[in-house]
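Case study.
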Amino acid sequence: MQRCLDLLTSGLTPEGILQQLINGVTLGSVYALIALGYSMVYGVLELINFAHGDVFMIGTFVVLGVTGQFGLTGTSSLALVIPVLLLAMIAAMALCAVLGFTIEKVAYRPLRRAPRLAPLISAIGVSFFLEAWIATYVSSRDHTLPNLLAGDIPLYADVTIRYVQVLMLVSSVVMMVGLQQLVRRTSLGRGMRAVAQDREAAELMGVNMDRVISFTFIIGSALAGVAAVLWMLNYSTNQTIGFIAGLKAFTAAVIGGIGNIPGAMLGGFLLGLAESLGAAYISNASCGIFSSAYEDVFAFAFLILMLVFRPSGIMRERVSQRA
Amino acid sequence: MTAEAATILELKQVRKEFGGLVAVDDVDVAVREGEIFSLIGPNGAGKTTVFNLITGLDVPTSGTITFAGRAIAGLKPHVLAQLGIARTFQNIRLFGNMSVLGNVLVGRHSRLHAAYWKAVVRTPDERAEEKDAREKAREYLEFVGLRRRHGDLANNLPYGLQRRLEIARALASEPRLLLLDEPAAGTNPQEKAALGDLIRSIRDRGVTLFLIEHDMKVVMGISDRVTVLDHGEKIAEGVPEDVRKDRRVIEAYLGTGA
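After joint prediction, the assembly is written out as follows.
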């Protein structure tokens, strides 16, 4: 018992915790970007778009393709790396947006008046299709980018933040602020909120519901494209990444309160933090019973606890109280 | 108003069946431009269904609906809003979690021309239009007496003011024809009197009004013409004084000589 306590306290240094917080927030920012796509679609359609994670996966392959075209390596100069990454982001956003728009039109719109299970099954079908398509025609191996933005900024003692992490944080925060502005201040945002609250009344007020739904998919998918670039700077991809990252982002959306945009962001950050702190400390905290290999288990245990004790999420979904 | 103003809305032999139930039974209605026209009848007479047919929520089983010379049956609701038809609801259907101003801005939707992609990148013309929309929305709030509540959540308004907000939201689309579905329901006598004034001032702005109403006093006080519906069928039509005296109306709707 004493040995366990020693083990627990020995691992807990302020520097260590700070470093894990930084890692957690950056990972969480990517989850948050993907989670927004789930949440926005759920908000306007009450549909869980299971193909969204695979849209993100396609985005990671677009990033691989673009960076591969320019032959980026770990020693490429910043003057080449930055424009290529920017180009990769634009390409991933555009392709994901087109893909999201098409999926809605082909797989969900014809089923809008069907029982709710039908579009859900259709979503799972699209997901399988995209995974199988990549595995068959592109690749079924793991891929990573070379270490493009090596280097870090010292923060405190030996705590550092890597350039890549700064880029991830800044990009995702910019996207989130932009999305909030869009939803709060523009006609499109008002249309989305109106459709979410009362679809019929919104149509009667002149809101073109089909167009609002299309744009919801376009914007959510473009955000997944941004997430794909950031993900590739730090992690690897294969054709199943959409399932895993997608499931985690979906978990983040549920934790935050699905349908709620700030909730999705908060859920993403919380999940990222839970995962990186869990991975770092679970072994010591459990006296060596659990290892860091259990990090996924803890992410989903978080989801189950949330569903049991606060199923509406942290930021209670207010839209669902419709008449 | 001249004696024979042009017809702005015409329903001819309009019929709506839900399964075996006939909700609207071959009804003819003609609303003239610039008048206050009322459709009355007991509960279940098919009044709200008539509004749903005009605004595109339901498609008639048979018959034609003409608005400003154009056949509109089967058009989508947002297209009809664009053509100039706006409505309120018997059970208030505001966007409760949006601000009072936000609700009116949604009502303005059909008069905004900037494409949605412009909202994403926020082009200068989209910004200018947005600013203009906010100004107009404030004017409509002023008109119904809600300007000072513009920042409140719609859900937090008292019932009577929610009814007025629905009217402001509908007016924001600059309609030619405004359908009011039981606007006096649940309001007190003072609010009813104020509502009558508001409806007349809307007419004075050049909007044609089509009311569904349960409350005879409100209808008889402000309407130019009244049509009475019973069990989906038209049983009387004319100026309020004549309709009030009609024997079938008294039997069907008023009971014994009210």
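Observations recorded in class. The two ends of chain B are 32 Å apart (CA to CA). Residues 124-144 of chain B form the longest helix (21 residues). We will return to this complex in the next lecture.
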